[in-house]
Design brief:
heterodimer; A: alpha/beta; B: 8 strands
Chain lengths: 481, 327
């Protein structure tokens, strides 16, 4: 299994940064213009170099109020009165601009977030454009969207808070359905990754979107709290951690606000002994190491049938030795930087606990850069349901390997978690896939693949992974009454 | 039940012999190999195709690719003159640049082997000959063996045989296996023995499961190389097929300790395509296959694009196709 060093050393292949123009400071995007924030401006850094990229305004309560008022005005006067076909034109226009500026957005996303350029270029940005195209198509067909509701109406103003793992894609998931259904938006990106959302604000200007339809306010937890608890917000949509999701649910309890929450996960990726082995290995790698494991639906638990466990792990390890960790802008990088120091500390802590609790830790030999936040791809073997690394969301490139003997045991272990966002089933037997899928308590069950997204396919969780669905017809329902 | 269990004992020679001891045993073995998920295999190949190979890595890859080319002419209109011209191209691909390496071999029909052999002399470029009623393989075993012997006696260093796809697709695996064994014996009759490349014609096998099974079948029968295609059937070499066959040679080595080479042929026309294949070799089979003894490109037009890219890299500008010889 030992690999000889390859004479085929890939030379650095950096994507040029010249295409992006990062300003030294950014304001808030309210009512169609950039304005100063009332709070204390904060810095956003590149997680791969710790270089300060820009200073970003913090929205205080007055700014949040101004943004919500602008959104309300735009909703009452313009957006809710516009016929669907006209709204669709704006969405199509935004989608096309995203495609035209795709490389610029991708480079900026990789700089601010730390994810590999091949992922922002090939996944995040194209999928974001696809969300706008898809929802543009719905804007004039909403009477067919919700069974039993022939005349659906928008809710009004949507307050949306998104995470740092897919900043631009999550923005698209939130804004596209809201606009298509006739709602207006106040969106807060995560404090560590505000730059592509602010670029999106420019795209709104470029598309001549009426002022106030989309407002982008930056800030941290306080700003988010002010937004979701603002009395004139009709809909709260949140993607992020289960803890914050709980706080939001408490804050909006007893109000008229409609809520969708897309929270954490601890997905099981289940490999049976008759699986297409090479593709299963790929699926496991993709499931946990895609986006540094900063994925709510990451396949962070590998459940592998005990009869093939040893050899399967050998194959997985061999594959992991070819993963390339490093500069997010290098086109050959597979695993980029951890998004923040805080997140890196959390991953380290949980990994250390895994080791202390007796699980076997393994990472392929890989050199990590000195500057920035890095964590090597890691697997833990000999993990049982009692280990914390089998129960808690690590949100990093760390895989816990658990074995099972029978399909029933696989289901039992897969469901034995407070979460229920996604699951993967790997087998050549179609009937077993269906048997498993009907028993797994997860919002998405992938079979013989993992981490595949499409705007037409609803996404969301069971149990502590949240409620409501995003994408597809089901996603539209969350923005209609 | 899976690759994992069905090949685990192959290091033991008796288990290897057992797999080919009867039609039933061979079927059990081949159908016990793990399946290939088409979507997943194609996705993996597409993702490897996005590797960006620049500067020093590109220079290494281009020179290596030139050294791996089996420069091929397999036409009804082949003549001694055409073959001699091809041979001088193989020896000195870029007359303007003496640092340019020669190709691995030229590949011709058996009746052209003697001409090629004479033209190549002691240049180090080998002569490969197709045989066994190439490209269809539709002839009696005696005819195929005679075809092979003709190539060997004329001095072929390597024989590229085709399998009986009809027998494979109708499930007569042992027949396919026995035929490969017989051709290999014919190859071994002279001198050091000619190297045997076994062409699966993956475009006719169609499914990746078939490609994987045929790869193992050929390796169990003793192939030195497994090769995708004749170049006469479309699709010929594709990146996902290369991926599946490289997984097969990798797994075969793991199971038996023996290294089998791989040759994609047909359809690889650009340097970019060739480099993508080398990336798959590097990351799937491993760097041990980055050697002309373990990997070849069966191609005719590929060489000139490799030469053009090589010159571009060296001089910084493109020169037109008129600056490269057409042979």
């Amino acid at each position: 299994m030992a690999q000889t060093p390859s004479p085929f050393e890939y030379a650095p292949a950096p994507e040029s940064r010249a295409i992006v123009d990062i300003r030294s400071s950014y304001g808030l995007f309210i009512d169609g213009d950039f304005v100063d924030g009332g709070g204390r401006a904060f810095k956003t850094i590149s997680p791969s170099t710790e270089e300060v990229l820009a200073e970003v305004a913090e929205a205080d309560e007055a700014d949040v109020d101004a943004a919500v008022k602008a959104a309300r005005r735009a909703h009452t006067r313009v957006w809710s009165r516009m016929v669907g076909a006209e709204r669709a034109k704006y969405l199509f226009r935004i989608a096309r601009i995203i495609q035209e500026r795709a490389r610029e957005i991708a480079v900026l996303e990789s700089i601010d977030n730390g994810k590999p350029i091949k992922e922002s270029r090939d996944v995040d940005i194209p999928t974001a454009a696809a969300h706008f195209f898809y929802h543009a198509g719905w804007a004039d067909k909403l009477e067919y969207a919700v069974p039993g509701n022939p005349d659906p109406q928008p809710l009004g103003v949507a307050g949306q808070v998104i995470p740092w793992n897919f900043p631009f894609l999550m923005l698209a998931w939130k804004i596209a359905p809201a606009l298509a259904t006739g709602n207006t938006v106040v969106l807060k990106p995560a404090e560590t990754t505000p730059l592509t959302a602010l670029l999106f604000a420019e795209i709104c200007q470029q598309a001549d979107l009426p002022p106030g339809v989309v407002n982008i306010i930056t800030g941290a937890g306080e700003t988010g709290r002010a937004l979701v608890s603002h009395p004139d917000v009709d809909k709260v949509a949140f993607t992020g951690s289960t803890d914050v999701g709980r706080a939001i649910a408490r804050a909006v309890a007893g109000t008229r606000k409609k809520v969708t929450l897309e929270l954490g996960g601890k997905a099981a990726n289940i490999v049976f002994d008759d699986a297409p082995v090479d593709q299963a290995v790929e699926g496991i790698v993709n499931g946990i190491f895609f986006n540094q494991g900063h994925v709510c639906c990451a396949g962070s638990r590998l459940l592998v049938q005990e009869s093939i466990a040893e050899e399967f792990l050998d194959r997985l390890k061999r594959r992991m030795t070819t993963l390339r960790v490093g500069d997010p802008l290098d086109k050959n990088t597979d695993i980029g930087a951890i998004n923040s120091h805080v997140q890196l500390e959390k991953i380290r802590e949980l990994a250390d606990i895994g080791e202390a609790e007796g699980a076997g830790r393994w990472s392929p030999p890989c050199e990590l850069p000195d500057q920035g936040f890095w964590f090597p791809p890691t697997i833990f073997t000999g993990v049982s349901q009692a280990h914390r690394i089998a129960r808690e969301e690590i949100f990093g490139p760390v895989l816990s390997v658990i074995t099972f003997r029978t399909p029933a045991e696989a289901v039992e272990k897969a469901n034995n978690t407070p979460y229920g966002l996604s699951a993967g089933v790997w087998t050549d037997k179609g009937s077993l896939i269906l048997w498993m899928a009907s028993r797994l308590r997860a919002g998405v069950v992938w079979s013989n693949t993992f981490n595949r997204f499409d705007p037409a396919s609803p996404f969301g969780g069971y149990k502590e992974s949240g409620y409501g669905r995003e994408g597809g017809r089901h996603g539209l329902e969350g923005y209609l009454k | 039940m899976t690759l994992l269990s069905s090949t685990a004992s192959l290091r033991d020679g008796t288990a290897l012999a057992a797999a080919t001891s009867s039609d039933a045993a061979l079927r059990r073995f081949l159908h016990g190999l793990p399946g290939v998920d088409q979507v997943g295999a194609e996705q993996r190949a597409a993702s490897l195709a996005t590797r960006s190979i620049k500067t020093s890595a590109k220079a290494y890859a281009l020179d290596l690719a030139i050294r791996m080319v089996d420069l091929t002419t397999l036409e009804g209109m082949d003549t001694p003159g055409k073959v001699r011209a091809l041979c001088s191209k193989a020896v000195r691909p870029d007359p303007a640049d003496p640092t340019c390496p020669h190709t691995a071999a030229v590949c011709v029909y058996p009746d052209m082997v003697a001409t090629a052999k004479q033209a190549l002399g002691d240049s180090g470029v080998k002569v490969a000959s197709v045989a066994t009623a190439f490209p269809s393989g539709r002839a009696a075993l005696d005819v195929k063996l005679a075809d092979t012997r003709e190539a060997i006696e004329a001095g072929a260093d390597e024989v590229d045989m085709v399998i009986d796809r009809g027998a494979f697709l109708s499930g007569r695996y042992l027949e396919v296996c026995d035929e490969i064994v017989a051709v290999k014996q014919a190859c071994d009759t002279t001198g050091d023995g000619a190297h045997l490349k076994v062409i699966l014609e993956t475009g006719e096998l169609q499914t990746y499961d078939n490609v994987r099974r045929a790869s193992w079948l050929a390796m169990l029968a003793g192939a030195h190389f497994i090769k995708t295609s004749t170049g006469k059937v479309s699709p010929a070499a594709t990146l996902p097929v290369a991926l599946v066959m490289l997984e097969a040679v990798r797994d075969y080595r793991e199971a038996t300790g023996q290294m089998v080479g791989f040759k994609p042929a047909g359809g690889i026309r650009t340097a970019k395509d060739a480099i993508r294949h080398l990336v798959v070799v590097n990351e799937v089979a491993g760097p041990d296959w980055l050697d002309p003894d373990r990997f070849r490109f069966g191609a005719s037009t590929l060489l000139n694009d490799l030469l053009m890219q090589r010159t571009k890299l060296r001089t910084g500008h493109y020169s037109g196709p008129d600056y490269f010889t057409l042979d």
